[in-house]
Amino acid sequence: MLSKKTQYAFHALIHLAENQDKGPILISEIAQEKNISIKFLENILLELKNAGILGSKKGKGGGYYLMKPPKEIALAKIIRLLDGAIALLPCVSLNYYERCENCKDEAICGLNEVMSKVRDASLKILENKTLKDILTRQVTI
Amino acid sequence: MLSKKTQYAFHALIHLAENQDKGPILISEIAQEKNISIKFLENILLELKNAGILGSKKGKGGGYYLMKPPKEIALAKIIRLLDGAIALLPCVSLNYYERCENCKDEAICGLNEVMSKVRDASLKILENKTLKDILTRQVTI
DNA sequence: CATAAACTCTATAAAAAAGATAGACTTATT
DNA sequence: AATAAGTCTATCTTTTTTATAGAGTTTATG
Prior knowledge:
Two copies of one chain form a homodimer. The first copy, chain A, is mostly helical. The first copy, chain A, has helices spanning 4-18, 27-34, 38-50, 75-83, 110-126; strands at residues 54-57, 63-66. The structure holds a DNA duplex. Chains A, B: Keywords: DNA-binding. Chains A, B: One of its GO terms (cellular component) is cytosol.
C-alpha cells in the first residue's frame, strides 16, 4: 500500500496539472481542495521541488507549479521518491536492492523469481503511465 | 513492500513444502534453517494455522505441516492474511476497500483507473502462482 | 503416570515508520 | 514597510512492525 505521503503527492500533482494555466498555485488551495493537512502537504511539495519535479515562487502571487509537462512525469518516479521501492521484496528491487537473509541462493529461489515478475508487471504500468494519464477523465455529455 | 511477517511466512511455507515427507516439522528447525527469530515465527505459524493453511501436532514428535498440497496455496492468500491489501490504494482494493477521501468521484478518477490496472496485473500473478511455484528450483547438472 | 517435548495463548515491550504540527526564517510584491 | 507566500528544521504523537516473555496445554513414551 502506498503511504499517505505518496497518495497526497499524487492528488497535489493532479491539481497542479489541472490548473497549469493559472500560474503558481497556493499550498493552501491544494490542501483545501484535496482535503489534506496544510503543514503536511508543505513537506511533500518541498520534497517534490527538491527532486526537480516542482518549481516554486515565493512571496505574493507565489506558489507551486510543475517543472515539466504532465506527460513527462512517470508515476513510478513519484512512488520511488516518496515511498522507496516498488517491488514487494528487497531482494527483487531494482532501485533499493538488499540481499535476502532468509534464503541461501537468490539465483535459484522461486520466490525471488515470482516476485520479479510481479515487479515487472507493475513497473510496465507505473513507468509508462504519467501524470497526464491520471488527470480527471472528462465525462462527455 | 511486504512485511517481514509475510516474508518469513513464505520462507517457512517453502521449508514445510520441501520437507512434507518428513512428518511434522519443528518451529525451531524452520527458525534455524531460515534465520528467523523463533518466537516471532511462532506467532506467524499460529496465524497460518488459524487460517487453515497449516496443521500442527503438539508434544513430542509434534510440529507443523501443510494442510493442503502446495499447488493449492495461492501466494495472494498468504499476503492478504498477513499483510492485508495487495492493491496500492485503499480505493482500489478488492478485499480491503476504503473510500478515497481526497478525490471527488472515484468513477472518473484517473489515479483510481491506473491503480486498478496495477492491482490486476499483480493479482494475475499472485492469484495464480502457488507455493509449488516458489519452491527452490532444482539445478539440473 | 511422570517427564519432557512441543505447540498455544496472551500480554507486553521496543523500535521504527508514518503522519502531523510548530515556528522562526527568507524572499518577493506592492 | 507591510504582507503574502514558500523554506527549513525540529519535534511530537500515533500507529505499525518486529520481537520477546512466560505460563499453559497437549502428547509421546519409558
